[in-house]
Write a structure and sequence with these properties.
The chain has four helices and five strands. The protein has 129 residues and is α+β, with helices and mostly antiparallel strands. Helix 3 crosses helix 4. It binds FE2/S2 (inorganic) cluster.
């Protein structure tokens, strides 16, 4: 393996730093929580996670944090993702591939419109109007 130059190391540190900032919860109100249990990973949760991070980055969204969690108990609809946006009910989406992850960011996060055909559950949706 070739050695990295100091400049390459600085670029790598810079890119990793911005990646870490996107995962920093502090002060961020919008949360995307990706189920990374065994069945989620087997169904492609990592590709969904990468798509969330890429779409957030390409749209310069700074108030969104992407987190990982374990099994959500929804094997049949993996990959599953919970989305929390202030003023909207929390939503659990299912069958979230890379394209759906992009759609969730562009519709739900940016335009406050749910991606109806992928909603699995709306915990407390009945008490938040
Ligand atoms: S491992 Fe599939 S729902 Fe938990």
């Amino acid at each position: 393996m070739a050695k990295m130059t100091l400049e390459e190391l600085r670029k790598l540190r810079s890119s990793q730093k911005s990646e870490m900032e996107r995962r920093d919860v502090e002060g961020k109100e919008i949360h995307i929580i990706v189920g990374m249990g065994t069945c989620g990973i087997a169904a492609g949760a990592k590709m969904a996670l990468d798509s969330f991070l890429d779409t957030i980055k390409s749209n310069n969204l700074t108030d969104v944090v992407v987190k990982q969690t374990g099994c959500m108990g929804l094997c049949y609809s993996e990959p599953t993702v919970e989305v929390k946006v202030p003023g909207m009910p929390d939503i659990i989406y299912g069958n979230v591939d890379a394209a759906v992850a992009k759609e969730i960011v562009e519709k739900h996060i940016m335009h406050k419109k749910m991606v109806e055909n992928h909603i699995q559950d709306k915990p407390a949706g009945d008490i938040i109007k």
